[in-house]
UniProtKB/TrEMBL annotation:
One of its GO terms (cellular component) is chloroplast thylakoid lumen. This is Thylakoid lumenal 29 kDa protein, chloroplastic. InterPro entries: Ccp1-like, Haem_peroxidase, Haem_peroxidase_sf, Peroxidase_I. It holds the Pfam family peroxidase. GO terms for molecular function: heme binding; peroxidase activity.
Length: 350
């Protein structure tokens, strides 16, 4: 873009210093004795070329030459920018891997908290309001006035687990503390993965080694790419408004459908996220199956969970969570990066 704007100034520069008349004939005549007829032939050829290569063509060639020089000189800047981008991506990737390891250990030691973690992530995101562009997965559920609301009253254990994990994560973070907004959604990811793995182990007769191999071979780990890139959410500084989340265990299916519709999701997503709506997924799906809009999707995902890979269920659940976890958020793709100390090789003693 910069090259084009620079080249556009070339004609004005050339207008100040007009092209001089061609000097080729005089140079030729001064170097060696050439007959007049020969000189006339040379001049005619030169004039013919000038007719074909007009002022505009010359300017274009001149501008292109300058542009090539600018591009060549800017190569080092492009290389530096690419290197910086690669460093930041590596930093974020390494930090994210460490976060997942911490959450995996915490959840594996507290498997009973998994349903609460899923509901915590759902309720933090479900405060999103399309009309005002407020709420969403912003970590506001951490505030005591919000976590104590009726719809969140059973979720304190999940929040406590996340707070303890945050202390450990912040202790090794080189790019600042992790936001609750990010950590809550990544905790939901880890919780979902734990249910996928548990299902694979059950299908292998309880053999953890075989179950892990089954999940690695046929699981959905490759589907988390977009979710993982949405890393850099900002924390809210105050609780979200009340009255935006229904009490799932008391809500009718129609109320659930209305709430999902309000944030841009439908019966399909409601069915696939049944595990987020309470501790008893079977009971929740029995209720959802009473609605003609939701029932076909409930049956689809129940059948999928009976297969070896449960692909339809896992892929659609990952897709739904990915959308839910980014509602109203402006992702900071430089979050958790940090400056790298440069090494002065001239001071190294070899």
């Amino acid at each position: 873009m910069g090259v084009i704007s620079f080249i556009s100034t070339v004609p004005s520069m050339l207008a100040i210093a007009p092209l001089s008349a061609p000097t080729t004939p005089s140079l030729a005549s001064s170097r060696c004795p050439i007959h007049a007829g020969t000189i006339r032939c040379k001049i005619e050829v030169h004039n013919a070329i000038e007719d074909q290569l007009g002022r505009r063509d010359i300017l274009k060639l001149f501008g292109a030459t300058i542009g090539m020089e600018i591009l060549a000189s800017s190569g080092s800047f492009v290389q530096d920018a690419n290197a910086a981008d690669l460093i930041e991506r590596r930093q974020r990737s390494e930090f994210q891997s460490s976060i997942k390891g911490t959450l995996y250990t915490a959840i594996k030691g507290n498997p009973d908290v998994v349903p609460c973690i899923l509901t915590l992530a759902l309720n933090d995101a479900m405060t999103y309001d399309k009309a005002t562009k407020s709420g969403g997965p912003n970590g506001s559920i951490r505030f005591s006035s919000e976590i104590s609301r009726p719809e969140n009253k059973e979720l304190s254990a999940a929040l406590n687990l996340i707070e303890e994990a945050k202390k450990e994560i912040d202790s090794y973070s080189k790019g600042g503390p992790i936001s609750f907004a990010d950590l809550i959604q990544f905790a939901a990811q880890s919780a979902i993965k734990s249910t996928f793995l548990a299902s694979a182990i059950r299908k292998c007769g309880g053999n953890e080694e075989k179950g892990s191999l089954l999940y690695s071979a046929y699981g959905s780990n490759g589907q988390w790419g977009l979710f993982d890139r949405q890393f850099g959410r900002s924390d809210a500084q105050e609780p979200d408004p009340e009255g935006r989340i229904p009490q799932w265990e008391k809500a009718s299916v129609q109320e659930m459908k209305d709430k999902f519709k309000a944030i841009g999701l439908g019966p399909r997503q409601l069915a696939v996220m049944s595990a987020f709506l309470g501790p008893d997924q079977t009971a929740t799906e029995t209720l959802l199956a009473t609605d003609p809009d939701v029932a076909p999707w409930v049956m689809k995902y129940q059948r999928s969970r009976e297969t070896v890979s449960q692909t339809d269920y896992e892929v659609d659940l990952i897709t739904a969570l990915t959308k839910l976890s980014s509602l109203g958020q402006q992702i900071n793709y430089e979050a958790y990066t940090y400056p790298v100390r440069k090494v002065d090789f001239s001071k190294l003693k070899l």
